[in-house]
Amino acid sequence: MYATSVDWLPLAVSLAGAGAVGGLLAGLLGVGGGIIIVPVMDFALTSVGIDPAVALHLAVGTSMATIVPTSVSSSRSHARRGSVDFELVRKWSLAIVVGALIGSQVAASVDARVVAGVFGIVAGLAALKMVLPLDHVVLHQGVPRGVAGVVLPGSIGMVSAMMGIGGGTLSVPSMTLCGEPVHKAVGTAAVLGLWISVPATIGYLLAHPPGEVMPPWSIGCVSLVGFAIIAPVAWLVAPVGAHLAHSLDRRKLSAAFGVFLLVVAGRMLYRAFG
User: Fold this and answer.
1) Pick from 226, 205, 203, 229: which is nearest to 216 by CA?
2) Which of 120, 69, 145, 141 is nearest to 274 (CA)?
3) Which of 2, 31, 58, 64 lies closest to 202 in space, CA to CA?
4) For residue range 128-138, what is the model confidence (pLDDT) as tens digits?
């Protein structure tokens, strides 16, 4: 069943703003625009009367769909600058695709509080990584091989799909902790975002949200209206972020965004456990 009355104007303005900020951050920090799009869209949907039981599922699924064009735009910009490790992309691609498919199906079938809890915990950990001066910490020289080389990208794909993010939030710190230069990690994360977003989006389109009232023009866990507003804005802004990434002080930007992300994580954790 669909909601019969939705105030589209404030919803459209909120989604356009989320797309602009999300696209900028996708190119600038490699964290994936979904880390912004998901909480903003969740708040926007519930504020116009959409059932909270389905709002977060729609936010996650729609965010994942918007990451497809954003990843293409951002990865092309980074590839032109030679900041993509295509050998690592080749090694991680299969595990990430499988993980993303599993993650989208799990997220679509569980209660919204579970999704909020996963989002809040991972966003909080990512925020601490951004706020603390850990940029030069290396735990392992080189990307893990063997079983760990499958489990790591598979977990990145699964958790990212459950959160509606492109993977940069998890893959960038994972790569830098393995000795990958930060600019190379950001560019590689942009390409990996495409390997996560395509299979996860297919999974969300085929899913059945657990709520009873859905906004009009939705398929599965994807809002076509949300996609139509967010995707073109994020697509246009992502290259700007990629350009700025090579000229601004990343430590200060990372710390500032980390503080904001702590607030987002706190809201999601309150929704999950409050």
Assistant:
1) 226
2) 120
3) 64
4) 877 877 666 66
pTM of the model: 0.82
Q: Kindly report each contact of residues 131-138 with a partner whose C-beta sits within 8 Å and lies 24 or more positions away, as own/partner.
A: 131/254, 131/255, 131/258, 131/259, 131/262, 133/251, 135/176, 135/182, 135/250, 135/251, 135/254, 137/177, 138/176, 138/177, 138/178, 138/179
Determine the pLDDT at residue 269. Answer: 93
- Helices 52-80 and 8-28 sit at what angle, rounded to 10 degrees? 40
Q: pLDDT per residue over 76-108, tens digit each?
A: 888 888 888 899 899 999 999 999 999 999 998
pLDDT tens for each residue of 191-249? 898 899 999 999 999 987 665 556 778 898 898 988 999 888 887 887 787 777 767 67
Return the domain boundaries, the chain.
8-273
Q: Whats the size of the chain, residue-wise?
A: 274
Q: How far apart are CA 243 and CA 237, in angstroms?
A: 10
Tokens 């900041």: give the residue. Answer: 83
Q: Determine the distance from the C-alpha atom of residue 23 to the mean position of all C-alpha atoms in its chain, rounded to a whole number.
A: 11
40: nearest Cα among 65, 59, 27? 59
Closest CA to 118 of 163, 58, 56, 167: 163
